[in-house]
């Protein structure tokens, strides 16, 4: 009889533990895959946001950099992981909206095959160059590139990355689609080579270049947004600088595998929202030029709509672009 009572107690304890676990997400650290090298925009935004989300969730979000193939290696790993809420990724305009048009054999479907969490931030694009490049402004730079495209080296973070995508659009407008290009595992390492003058220019998200522009280790020709950024108020817009057709908004956001438990999705959405409302986190993001997402963009559906809108916009231009 005693044995039976103990047995029942143990069974009850086990079923309670199971229930508690299902209710208690997260019960262990969560991995957030950053599909580029450390020090680039995706890594910077992921670390700032994950830092605050970890506090809300009561479990650490551990950043894992899995670089390669313009970010598609890391995103493939994240969205094909077990859909248990313990593997998510920080992707962006490139990996979620540009990659399908760039990689015909892409192993994930950003529109129908993953669980969006929300947008972490808008990241305006700047055309930046090594500081001793002769051209003093965007008009002179454009004229020099058009006259001698083979004299310039562009740095990017791989086919389908934001830097590749946005510079592909830039070169399309100039009519110089083929320029020597050097691919890096992220624009963090690319920026190091721009600062040391080993490459000439790149198109990059504001968060990793703002500090370098402020300290004059590189020069910024223009920001490809409708308005100047409060983080870099001296940098003209492309419209002001004479290239009004070059307008593109990049962004970073979080997604995971399709089929994640609702509880995990809800808690991640809530933690992201709390991070974006936290004064300290907001300041860190705004100082780097991040544009805070709207309430709608912070939701899974709002973020999914943004991914689709930008995929529809980019696909015609990228499908036809040289893949270099
Ligand atoms: C990109 O070009 O896609 C990003 O800047 C890559 C990165 O975050 O390093």
At a glance:
The protein is α/β, with parallel strands linked by helices. Helix content is 44%, strand content 19%. The chain has helices spanning 2-23, 41-57, 72-79, 93-102, 138-147, 162-174, 187-195, 206-214, 262-277, 279-287, 300-320, and strands spanning 30-34, 61-65, 87-92, 114-130, 153-156, 180-183, 201-205, 218-223, 249-257.
Present the secondary structure layout.
Elements: H1 2-23, E1 30-34, H2 41-57, E2 61-65, H3 72-79, E3 87-92, H4 93-102, E4 114-130, H5 138-147, E5 153-156, H6 162-174, E6 180-183, H7 187-195, E7 201-205, H8 206-214, E8 218-223, E9 249-257, H9 262-277, H10 279-287, H11 300-320
Parallel strand pairs: 1-2, 1-3, 5-6
Antiparallel strand pairs: 3-9, 4-7, 4-8, 4-9
The protein binds D-malate (MLT).
Would you kindly provide a written description of the structure presented here, covering whatever features stand out?
It comes from Bosea thiooxidans. With 324 residues, this protein is α/β, with parallel strands linked by helices. It has two domains: 29-123 and 250-320, D-Maltodextrin-Binding Protein, domain 2, CATH 3.40.190; 124-241, 3-Layer(aba) Sandwich (D-Maltodextrin-Binding Protein, domain 2), CATH 3.40.190.10. It is built from eleven helices and nine strands. The protein has helices at residues 2-23, 41-57, 72-79, 93-102, 138-147, 162-174, 187-195, 206-214, 262-277, 279-287, 300-320, and strands at 30-34, 61-65, 87-92, 114-130, 153-156, 180-183, 201-205, 218-223, 249-257. Helix 6 (162-174) links the parallel strand 5 and strand 6. The N and C termini lie far apart (75 Å). Residues 1-22 have low confidence and may be disordered. Residues 36-37, 40-43, 71, 92, 94, 157, 161-163, 186-188, 204-205 line the site of D-malate.
